[in-house]
Design a protein that fits this description.
The protein is α/β, with parallel strands linked by helices. The protein has 10 helices and 12 strands.
Length: 264
């Protein structure tokens, strides 16, 4: 990767292909790979990418990366696009189909269920975004497909919003995605500063980001970006991320080893 005094040239950038990432990636001047979080995590781990906006759990699972400080996709309550769709009562759910695209949301669900003393069966299902929900079952959905499902079935199901449930249980924001930089990337601080500046510019001119979206209405994008999402990784978000790690360790999802948050 070539470096000049004021910018990093041609980093291999990956970004989740969801609406929630747009205020962080819109206007990026170079090429970028857009894909599902699970695919990007594999590419980042294989050094096929230099930096990627991916599931926060990827750092907790494999903390070799530097985190771009002060930038995240987070919520401080309901997030709208990460939920369990179900009928009846949450306590009566026997099985939940998991969207395999994001390990963060699946493991957040595991923690919330365990803390609540609930033990439904969990199974990965690549077709989770299609069709309805059989009686006694539920689905964990994330991202744009979750938004579309909610729009189509808003009167047919109840929605257990994981951002809202985390806030209720902990009083803290939840961090869904982070920019992670591979350890061998030179001048990571320059790249991180570019991404912070891009986020700041996009939030300052959010109407331009909203106008660029073709798959969802401007009204929905404005509400989603302003009311449901946060794009900063400040102290409350860092506390929420560390608590999530602690709960993953408590419930056997992560080993007890603790690594510091390495910030760029």
């Amino acid at each position: 990767m070539r470096v000049t005094p004021d910018r990093v040239e041609s980093p291999r950038v990956g970004c989740v292909k969801y609406l929630n990432a747009q205020p962080l990636i819109h206007g990026w001047p170079g090429p970028a790979t857009f894909d599902y979080p699970s695919t990007l995590c594999r590419q980042l781990a294989a050094a096929e990418l230099d930096i990627a906006l991916v599931s926060a759990f990827e750092f907790l699972r494999n903390p070799i990366y530097s985190i771009v400080d002060d930038v995240a996709v987070a919520s401080n309550g309901a997030v709208y696009s990460v939920f369990v769709a179900y009928n009846g009562s949450v306590a009566d759910i026997e099985e939940i189909a998991l969207d395999p695209a994001s390990s963060t949301s699946a493991n957040l669900l595991r923690c919330l269920l365990a803390e609540a003393g609930l033990k439904p069966r969990l199974r990965a299902d690549a077709a989770v975004a299609s069709g309805g929900v059989p009686a006694g079952s539920a689905k964990l959905m994330i991202g744009d497909q979750a938004i579309r499902f909610r729009e189509s079935y808003s009167d047919d199901y109840s929605f257990w919003d994981l951002g809202a449930e985390w806030k209720r249980a902990t009083g803290l924001p939840f961090v869904f995605a982070l920019w992670l930089i591979r350890p061998e990337v030179e001048e990571a601080a320059i790249l991180a500063e570019q991404l912070r500046a891009l986020r700041d510019a996009n939030l300052k001119a959010l109407e331009n980001v909203i106008a660029a979206q073709k798959d969802f209405s401007p009204e929905f994008c404005a509400t989603y970006f302003r009311d449901f999402l946060r794009f900063h990784l400040a102290e409350p978000e860092k506390k929420g991320l560390l608590l999530f790690r602690s709960l993953c360790q408590k419930h056997g999802i992560l080993p007890p080893k603790v690594a510091p948050l390495r910030l760029a």
